[in-house]
Every structure is written in C-alpha cells, then in structure tokens.
Amino acid sequence: MTSAFRTEPRDDAIRHLRRSLVRLETADGDAGSGFWIGPGLVMSCAHVVPGGRVTVVWQGHHLAGEVSEAVPAARGRADEPWPYPDLAVISVPRAPEHDCVWLSEQRIPLRTPLFLLGYSSVYSAELKSHSAYGTFSGSHGDEDEMWRFVGDEIAPGMSGGPVLDLDRGAVCGVIKTSREINSERGGLLVPIRGVRALTEAARAHLWRAHDRHHATSAWVVLRRGLAEGALPGDVPTLDAGEEVELLELITRLEDTPDLRALYAEAVAPATGLPPEPITDVRQLCYLLADLLPRHGEPHPLLRLVHRLAAREPKPVADALREWAVRVAARRGEYDDFERWRRDAATAHTPAGDRPSIIVQVVPTALDSTRYLLTLWVRENGKRSVKTYCDDGQGRDVAAIRALLVRLLRPLLKRLEGWASIEFVVPGDLFDEDFENLLVGRYSRLGRTNPVVIRDLERLSDDETWHAWQTRWRSLRAGTGSAEWLACDDDPSPDKLDAGLRLRPEIAVLGLARQPRQYAEDALGVALYAGVPAALWSRDTCPEHQAGGHVGECSGAGFRRTVSRLLAGCELGELPDVIQRTRNAAAAGEEPSCTGVVLLWDDPERRPEPDAPLIELA
Questions:
Q1: pLDDT in tens, 244-259
Q2: Is the per-residue pLDDT at 549 higher than 70?
Q3: CA distance 35 to 422
Q4: pLDDT higher for 6 or 132?
Q5: In this structure, are residues 445 and 439 in contact, taking their beta carbons and an 8 Å threshold?
C-alpha cells in the first residue's frame, strides 16, 4: 500500500524534471547535460562547460547561452577529476518560458532513493535522454564534498544532469562522473550545497531567480503530495507552501543583516558559534529549520522571521509578521510565539556583544599631515588587545589606507566577518571615506560591516564626559531623540549649545549637508555638548552653494530619506541601519544617501594605549 500511495507524486516529480532537462553543446562539438534552475539560468558541471558560449538545446529550441560562472574554472591535475565543486551556471538571455527544478541544499539520509537524468548516446548514435535509479550511499571527501550513488549505471554524457530526491521532490545534486563505464557501480554526485562556492553576487542572483519563480510553480503541489506519505519523524518544519512563501519574501529584503547576531538571537539562550559558516539569510533559515523548539518557546525559525520583520520597511515587514503568526498558529505555537514577542519587545540587548576593531589615527607632533596608526580588537566585553602600533615615522593618508587594507583582512577573517569597525580620528579626517576600503573581493568595508567614526579629541577631554555619558545612556535605553539641522539652519554656537543643554535627551544630531558648509562649527558644538552620535553626507548641497534654488534641495532629500529609514528602528540600531543604507545607495536604490557618515561614540569604549602589543593567531 505504501508503494502505491507514493507512486503518483514520484511520477509527477519525474515528469517535471524531464521538462527541465537540457542538452548542452560547446563550440568544439562536445556535448553534455544540464537543467533549468531559474528563468534563463541553467546549471551543469564545470568540466562539461568550463566557460565561454554554449548552445542550450531544449524542446526543439537552440538557445544562445554563456557560462556566467564556473567553479573552479580550470581542471588542475590532468590525471584527476575536475576539483570540487565542479559546477557551472549558464545565462540564457532570450530563453522562452520554461519549467525550472526545485533545488535543495539540505543533506539527505543514507539510502535515499534517487532518480538521475541526462543525455547519452550509449544505446544509439543520437543523444537521447537517459535515466538511472539508485540510492545515496554516503559521502566522499573530507568535507562531504561529493556524494556516492549506487544501484545503476551513469552513462557517458549524463554529467551535468539533475539528481532528484524521490522522497522530497527536490533536485539535491548534479551528476559528476561514473565509477566505471558500462557498469552498475554508480558514481559521484555534486550536492547542490556546492553553489556556496560561487561568488556572492552569482549565488544571490541564482537563489533570487529560483525562489521568485517557485513562488507560483507547480513543484509546491507535488512536494506536498510526497510529504503526505512521509513518516511522522520525516515531517518538515514548514509546509512546502510556507517554505516557498518565506523564500520569496527573503528575496525582497533590503540588505543582508548581521547573520551571526540573528543566529544568536534565534537560538538564545544557547551560546556558541553556528555549526557552519553562514553566508546568507536563506541558508540561515534552513539551518534554523532543522532545529527543534524548546518547550514553551516558539520555533527558532519563527523568532528569526520576527527579527527580520523588525528591520524591514513596509510592506515586507507586514508580510513577514503575518507569515510568522500564521505558521505559529498552524504549528500550535501561537501562544508561545505571542508571549515571546511581548517579552522580546521589552527586553534590552546589552551593548558591546559584537566584537569591534578600533582603528586610531593620530597626527604626528611635527607634521599634521602625517599620521600614526594603532589597532585594537575588543571581543565579548573583554579588554582591548592591541594588534598593531606604528613607530614614530608617520604616514600620509594614502599610505594609512593601503596599510589598513592589509591589516584588516586577517582580523576580519579571524572574527568571521562579524565585527564593527570604529575609526578614532581627528576632525580633519571625518570626511575621509574609510568605509570604502576594499577589504574583500568585491564589497567595500562599510557594506560588509558596520563602520563608524569617533572623535579623537573628545576622548581626552574629560570636561565633556558627564554630558556625553548621560546622552549615550538615553540613546541605548531608547529614550533619546534625534535633532536635525536643515541646509537653511545656521545657528550661532551660543544658540545651538544652549538649545542642546536645554534638551539633554538629544542623542543624535543630523546634518543635512557637510559640517564644513555651515558658517559655524555646528558639529563641534554638538560634540562638546556631549551628543554621542551624528549623521551627515559627504556630498555637498550644490543648490545651496549656488543659491536661489527652487524646490527640494539635495540636503533636504538626504534628510527625508534618512528620516524614513530611521522611522522603523531604534536609535541604538543606527550602525546596522547605516550599513544597510550604504548597500542600498551602492545598489542605486537610495542615491541621496551616497557618502553617508555616522559618528558613533560610546564614552565607555576607549582604546587602551598602555595595552601590550599582541600578535593574534
């Protein structure tokens, strides 16, 4: 009875798979297999199509494609198989409407039944689709890089074809190679999790296209059919429909948040690092979905989605909250979820949990255009550890920037990328764009990490410390407020200082244009009055410089955009908000915020100049 019950959903999955299979032809006449993974996107093996132009043959169409990425792009040793992950993604710009497979990065149990599909000429001179049935028999490689397939023949030409998990209705791998030609001894498969070796941009494009397509595809229905016959212990955390809905919402997030912090919040009060490095929100969702909820608490995945909603603007935030409530109710965790949400709303997250790298740049005594560089690392509330200290020679700004790139890369790697960067600099370097240092392959420092500047002079000015600490405490407690100076505002120092003294709750000063464009030193007055945070843009307000403008000026546009971004968050979240804003500006979504600067000064987090120099492992 069980076999008959599950036959029809499996047959549906195989039919869908066949409609996604393609044949690949290269310029030198070689042929192989591939399959549609998203609109205009084909996956295959790198050894089948290592690069260049490819002809994609599908249902009578001969389509022009090009390998957008292959990893690795070269074979390596000629006497060994193509190195892991041996995957290639092909872009087909003018593809007609077509089916796409459902991909899964999840690991599968031993003896999972598998269906393999590809093209082969093993039984005729003409390439025809060729299938194989077998099972997963374990991994191969130190890091479970490859999967072993047994029970049937992998024929020549099938490399690059899809591997279907018949229990879950998901393509879980790619056919790599047979163990022995013309035998039933199986071969090796590349698990879909190998896509994590793609570049960040390629991986994000792949999953965005895949997840948006499947929000309305027929794979949900067939996966539900397979789930109906599953054993009680195999029932997933989410229904297939809930899963695709969440994944589609993730594609609409404005930016990648602090993944390690989100993981810690979702599994709290448990401690420790995630069991594997987390590269994106999608992976984090699946990592949490595999966990079990503690008694009396909602599932960690629901907690994650609630945290994501708190960071997003409408309507995505509303859709995430509605999804979490609906799934909690379906799982019987609604009361636990609502109780946790109320408790979380009143809880205060202590400052300083995130490690920080403190970069101090001090002008030399004899030449104010040359600087001395010192770096500290502060982790888990511990004392700062000095990791680099300049001698007395000094460097110009260009040399400081080049040295920072070399010093920050290993520190960020050691901290797994999860660190804020604090630049303690004199006022004449406030507009130096340290956040644009290229410390990764593609992204700038301020887009991968929260980057703030701090006032070097105030650290040694004890006269301002009491007001500074008082305003900082109100900011962290959520009772502080923000005050803006518009482009037309130009108060005298006395008037601005008096206004700030009358309102000790002001914790953030926003400047609609560059600080030096104001006739008086408005920023200096605010810092002396103890204001711990300030926002401005490095871009000028050309309309006010020229005079006689009509309508909204650039500075007003910057103020309006930042105010909108801050409306849905607490002031204490400013470093993370500005990190997202920098990404949005670079992506062209918030052009008025290009060059946004955040001064963020915690009076209790000071460099420790007497700390010994320690070379971190």
A1: 999 999 999 976 677 8
A2: no
A3: 47
A4: 132
A5: yes
- Rounded to whole angstroms, the Cα distance separating 82 from 292 reads 38
Q: What average pLDDT does range 18-37 have in this prediction?
A: 91
pLDDT mean across residues, the chain: 86
Whether this prediction's pTM lies above 0.70 is answered by no
- 165 burial level (CB within 10 Å; 0-12, 13-18, 19+): buried
Closest-CA residue to 514 (of 615, 587, 413, 597) = 597
Token representation of residue 421: 């960067």
Phi, psi (deg, nearest 5) at residue 374:
-135, 140
Of 418, 420, 413, the closest CA to residue 434 belongs to 420
Specify whether the CB–CB gap between 452 and 520 falls below 8 A: no
Instruction: Pinpoint the alpha helices (H) of 462-610.
Output: 465-477, 493-502, 522-528, 542-546, 554-567, 574-586
- Tokens for 183? 């035998």
pLDDT, tens digit (0-9, with 9 covering 90-100), for 368-414: 899 999 998 887 656 678 889 887 788 999 999 999 999 998 888 88
3-state secondary structure of 570: coil
List the beta bridge partners of residue 173: 163, 191
114 alpha carbon, distance to own chain's centre: 32
For 78, left (φ over 0), alpha (ψ -120 to 50), or beta? alpha
Name the residue among 446, 442, 405 with its Cα closest to residue 199.
442
Residues of 6-44 as b/e, b for ≥16 C-beta within 10 angstroms?
beebbebbbebbeebbbbbbbeeeebbbbbbbbebbbbb
Is the pLDDT reported for residue 218 higher than 50?
yes
In angstroms, the CA 569 to CA 302 distance is 20
233 CB neighbour count, 10 Å cutoff: 5
Tell me which residue has tokens 């920023």: 523
H/E element, 344: helix 334-346
Tokens 């594609």, residue located: 251
Q: Which two tokens stand for residue 145?
A: 């890089």
Separation CA 22–CA 58 (nearest Å): 5
Beta carbons of 152 and 186 less than 8 angstroms apart: yes
Cα–Cα distance list, 64 to 23, 438, 488, 607 (Å): 12, 35, 57, 58
Nearest 5°: phi and psi at 606?
A: -115, 145
Spatial CA neighbour of 426 closest among 377, 398, 460: 460
Whether omega for the bond prior to residue 607 falls within 30 degrees of 0, making it cis, is no
Helix (H, G, I), strand (E, B) or coil at 115: strand
pLDDT in tens, 90-99: 999 999 999 9
Is 539:595 a contact under the CB 8 Å cutoff? yes
Whole-number pLDDT of residue 328: 94
Report d(CA 428, CA 600) in Å as an integer: 17
The dihedral region occupied by 151, where left means phi > 0, alpha psi between -120 and 50, and beta the remainder, is left
Give the count of beta carbons closer than 10 Å to the beta carbon of residue 491: 16
Cβ-count burial of 162 within 10 angstroms (0-12 exposed, 13-18 middle, 19+ buried)? buried
Segment 161-173 mean pLDDT: 96
Please list the residues that pair with 109 across neighbouring strands: none
> What pLDDT does 614 receive?
57
| Enclosing H/E stretch for 64 | strand 61-71
Q: Which residue's entry shows tokens 């240092």?
A: 437
Structural element, H or E, at residue 103: none
